[in-house]
Design goal:
With 53 residues, the chain is mainly α. It has a domain of 25 residues.
Length: 53
């Protein structure tokens, strides 16, 4: 049989102030990545328009 860990464990309260800096940095990275992706898409479309039309 599989062995189980301890039957009881303690839950620790997580406050918003503990996780907000991490979430803000993730959101900033997402916005920066989105900006680069949109710019790259526009550049590809312009190059396609120049060379394929």
């Amino acid at each position: 049989m599989a062995e189980h860990g301890p039957a009881s464990f303690e839950l620790v309260e997580v406050k918003a102030s503990d996780i907000m800096p991490e979430r803000v940095s993730f959101y900033d990275s997402f916005l920066k990545g989105s900006t680069y992706a949109i710019g790259a898409t526009i550049a590809i479309l312009l190059l396609m328009w120049i060379f394929l039309v």
